[in-house]
Amino acid sequence: MYEPQRWHEFLSSIEDNPQEQMRLLEAAGISSTTLARWVSGEEAPCPYALYRLFCALPQHHQGLLEQVAREFALLSRGDQSAAHCSEAQEIAPVFYDRVLNAALKVPEPLRTWVVSNLVLQQASIHLDPRRQGLSLLIVRCMPPSRGGRVRSLRIALTNDSRRWQLSSQGEACFYGRESLAGHAVSIARTVIFQTPAQASLVIPTPGVDPLAQDEALVAVACPIVRARRVAGCLLAVSSQPQLLSQERLSLLHKYTNLLLLAFEPDEFYPVELIQLYRLPPLEVQKPLLASLRRRTAQLMSEATRRRHPLDISQAEALVWRQLEEELLALVASADEESDEQ
């Protein structure tokens, strides 16, 4: 198959593959109109947007990336390591426009998913364009229950950069005070965790497998905060220690701020009302969480028979509450048995 040797020839060729073109435009933070102008020569490309686009290509296009870097003097002489960067330190304005447009025009309950989806996909491309290993998880506060306190968190959406896919239920998990996410939400501050090579990760990290067990892992939990009220956090888990660089941490915080638009005002809770409980480990949770869809379908069916129908979001919210209660009861029972012994 013909492989274009110059970057402008390659730009012309990707117009024939709409799906790949969309992925690369997301990575570069440009529109299809801008790409067309670059290809036709009507507009000179922005060097760093062009560089971001080529950073998102598979490894066998490395020569094109280095050519762009040399032509636009993006690398200092002898500094070839920079060719592996993500790299822009800012989120493209065109992406801010897309998120704001979705937040303004998409109705609830779709708005939460659409905005979250946009942010996770773009953050994954931006922070890990070569798919070396980054899992992003949106973790949200469960609504207050007894005493008006938030007692747990749960995963709302995940993205794995290696598979370029999103999941809203495949990685279901509750987090409590013992987790990194729980700690970050409880104090409304970013928390960073890093393991040495070959150490086992001691925090719950669904979505991380199959990262190589002999690689160092880093995790960052950035709370989603508005005026000392917290909705949850963005949890990033990576096999790459570069996630802890100042530039990437700054980007992670910017994407976390964009997630403010994914939550309704009443989904932010005062820090003093967040009193998380300890929850069972993931392997204990899994049997209960596996019943989520079945329970949701049963609840909707029963509500319809009673002539008080529920939509899927209402039914799921009730089932999540049931699951939280059952998991907290498991912990309480285990604690009682331990005290008796």
Would you give the CATH topology of the largest domain? Beta-Lactamase
**What does the radius of gyration come to?**
22 Å
Can you identify the CATH class of the largest domain? Alpha Beta
In CATH terms, the superfamily of the largest domain is: GAF domain
- What portion of residues belong to β-strands? 5-15%
Inertia-based shape: elongated
Task: Give the integer mean of the pLDDT values.
Answer: 79
Number of domains: 3
Regions with little confidence, pLDDT below 50 for 5+ residues: 1-5, 74-87, 163-170, 200-216
Number of helices: 12
Number of strands: 8
Helix percentage = 40-55%
The biggest sheet, with number of strands, parallel, antiparallel or mixed sense and barrel status, is: 8 strands, antiparallel
Summarize the structure in short.
This is GAF domain-containing protein. The chain is of the alpha+beta class and 341 residues long.
Observed structural traits:
about 350 residues, alpha+beta, Beta-Lactamase, 8-stranded antiparallel beta sheet, disordered N terminus
What does this structure look like?
With 341 residues, this protein is an alpha+beta fold. The protein has three domains: 7-84, no CATH class; 93-273, 2-Layer Sandwich (Beta-Lactamase), CATH 3.30.450; 282-340, no CATH class. The chain contains twelve helices and eight strands. Strands 1, 2, 3, 4, 5, 6, 7 and 8 form an eight-stranded antiparallel β-sheet that branches. It is elongated. Mean pLDDT is 79; it is low at 1-5, 74-87, 163-170 and 200-216. This is GAF domain-containing protein. It comes from Thermogemmatispora argillosa.
